[in-house]
Amino acid sequence: MAQKTEACAGPSGHPALKFPFYAPETVRRGGVRPSRMSRRRAIVLIALHVAIFLHILHWKLAGRTLTPLEPSETFFTLAEGAINAGAILFLLSLVATMVLGRWFCGWACHIVALQDLCAWLLKKIGIRPRPLRSRALVFVPLLAGLYMFGYPLVKRWLADHPPPFHWELTKSGFWDTFPGPFLAAATFLVCGFAIVYLLGAKGFCTYACPYGGLYGVLDPLAPGRIRVTDACKGCGHCTAICTSNVLVHQEVREYGTVMDPGCLKCGDCISVCPENALYFGFGKPALFTRPRVKVKARPRMFSVGEEVALALAFAGALFVYWGLPSEVAPWAGRLYNEMPLLFSLGLASITAFLALTVLRALRRPDFGFQHLKLKAGGRVTRGGATFLGLSGLYFLFFAHCAWVQFDTFRGVALLDRTAPLRPAVAQQDRRVLERLDPVMAGNVRAARTHFERAERLGLFTDLRLASQLAWLDPRAARSRGSAGASRAGRAPPPRPRALPVRARPGAGRARRCRTCRRALPRRAGPPAGPPARARAARPGRAGAPAAGTLRGGGAGPGAGRGARAPERPGPRGLVGRARAGRRPSGSGRRGPRAPRDRARARGSS
Fold it and tell me: Domains in the chain: how many in total?
């Protein structure tokens, strides 16, 4: 009996297995044999990528093809009513999940194929990433899935006149709903490779994938599951080969079936079982399955405080990379207005995990990560210095993104405060635009500063900044802001130069209306002579033209400057042509102020 108890003892210090369905023979321990199912699944996933390539090739050659077979296309079905092939595929996969379990992720997902490829390459060099087991981040996929598919459905239901559903199975803009090549490649590298080394072989599926969050909710309803027979001896080979972070040996011992919704039904555990005790079969769904024995608590990698820190770090990183929904915060958009949701979720997971790992390494005298020993005896090792250095570079990149987003968010928030000026801009109402109060002028000036700094610091072009800067004009902030600046103790901004008077009629130049500044019909003028837009020569200069001089000109201050300067087209921004054609205040004459008059005006202001 002692021999049987020792032979049936579970791995990692688990108590002896004393169930009647265990065979009395000793467990044949040893190395885990290769999985035959992994090779078959690799062939299926390679064929899937070949089909994707042929789909894109058909679009390139024909110009129009079937809509992308991507679950994310369901978002446009719910928001715009366009029933496409991606929505049909996603609906069929949800129905299949309620029967067969979460098999679609393991056998038909291109991100899973990239994660398996990365895990296989790491295994070739002797690295087997440890899975991250977080109790807080495990809810991220479900929340992301509810937002991605539930939010547009609720919004459609509450709308008074939602767009009607219509068929849209083909399209010519195949890549319209996908990010550009650079972002697509970066998404695959981060979600398919980098996240595997940091979070485990299926780190993205467990802590970031919104589709997996919905599949995980439906998986407990499926009667098809991985089940166990009486031949099981608890050797633990199934858990050792599992890449989905599932404790297979513990669940089949407690329930007789795999209960974890993270099981992707890849079949590796079935293939490597030395007793052929595992199989895929139909029976009672996991939702109605009761444990056979007292269930042991799952191992915990982080304390409650560390779980809270992980959740806060993830939320902060997601806010920086992706922002907030426009209905909640219109000023908080995506980074560079291009960041995809999946890429943002992957980067946020990596940011949260790296932040906690670096904090642990700094606080503990001895700390290791994966196959690296970061600290030993209170001193940082060479591998630890490399890891901390790379982590520091990533956090510098994250801080840069946060700075750019802060300037963009602040600029958009300040620009929204200038909404009362939009009708005046559209109508070019100079009476409103010329009399901006100091608060409104300060908002315009601050918004322009934030937008220009975000545009200067950004690594990529953000088209939002160019369109928002088009509404702003630096002269608007100076129109009425000099008084407020003087009261604040700052030097007032320079006054805009008063425009000279228009030339006399008949000089051959176009006249403009004093109110709307529109060009009026030309008057017949002398056929010859110097152009009216030429600047008059200085006093005493030979050959000075007299066509542009002031009325009643002659000797005295400013007489030589009476000609009209070349007219420049006014800006079309927030204060577009706000001061164009404005008659200088002060005396009744139509020319610019003399130097003495300008000095007196500055003193009085």
Answer: 4
